[in-house]
Amino acid sequence: MYFQASNELTVVTLVACWTITLAYDYKLAWDHPARNYVGHLNPCFGWDFAPASYVAVFMCAADVYLAWTYAVLEALRTRLRDTDNRIDRAERFSLVTTYLHGIASMMWLLLWLVGPPDGRWEVHLAIFSAALGFRYLCTLGNYVENRFGKAFEKGHVNTSHTLFIIVYGLVVAVLPVLYFVDITVYAAEGRTGIDPPLPWQLLQTFDILWMGCLSASTAMSVPEPPIIVTHKVLEFDDEFDPEDFTPAQQKLMRNLGYREVACG
Fold first, then answer.
1. Which sequence ranges are marked TM in the entry (predicted)?
2. Which end of the chain has a smaller Cβ tally under 10 Å, C or N?
3. pLDDT of residue 154
């Protein structure tokens, strides 16, 4: 749920910021300096500048919490479902990609520090591309773990999940390339004004496809079993059951002065 919430938060933030920009001054998006390179209205044009950027940073900061909470819970779920004390390749890939998504959520905040204030759009695009790729890899990791993982993890992947992961992957692979071509060729040929090397309709189409994939990720991701989390305060005069703790946790409990439950 946290990963789906992370994707949904990005979409909601874009909608909110575009609403603010259009209400405040539509020229902030229409006359966006990066539009010279691409020709069309990129989804991010609506949140690059104030006052929408204030809302964007505020809301995207919450994504850091969502992304890292998902990473921690995904690691916990993998450990709880581990029956052979061995992490296979599918599980390892899934774990790595969840942490990459956590890193991506932090990188995402750099988008308002590089590009809009200093015009370094190549670096801005590089950050965006990396974050875009990491977010997709997290979706792919979920698919791989359920498609190629252990027997008890199989059976929940259907054709729609496979088609979605293929389409989403193609969009994420092609979109940054199109943007880099526009920016590099524009600069190399010394173009001025709104004069994109590639047809703006092409990039606009892929932007819409990316937004569609992001919006559909909740419905099209492979479902995973929920984790039931309970909380309990263990007072200092309580005894603890070693079976409820890992060896490292048992050692910590003993160091804190806790006593084990007497056997028999």
1. 49-73, 93-113, 125-144, 165-188
2. C
3. 63
For residue 264, the model assigns a pLDDT of 52
Please write the tens of the pLDDT for every residue from 93-110. 999 999 999 999 999 999
pLDDT mean over 146-156: 70
Residues 6 or more apart whose Cβ sits within 8 Å of residue 17: 46, 47, 52, 53, 55, 56
What is the pTM assigned to this prediction? 0.85
Per-residue three-class SS string for the chain: CHHHHHHHHHHHHHHHHHHHHHHHHCHHHHCCCCHHHHCCCCHHHHCCCCCHHHHHHHHHHHHHHHHHHHHHHHHHHHHHCCCCCCCCHHHHHHHHHHHHHHHHHHHHHHHHCCCCCCCCHHHHHHHHHHHHHHHHHHHHHHHHHHHHCCHHHCCCCCHHHHHHHHHHHHHHHHHHHHHHHHHHHHHHCCCCCCCCCCCHHHHHHHHHHHHHHHHHHHHHCCCCCCCCCCCCCCCCCCEECHHHCCHHHHHHHHHCCCEECCCC
152 has a pLDDT exceeding 60: no
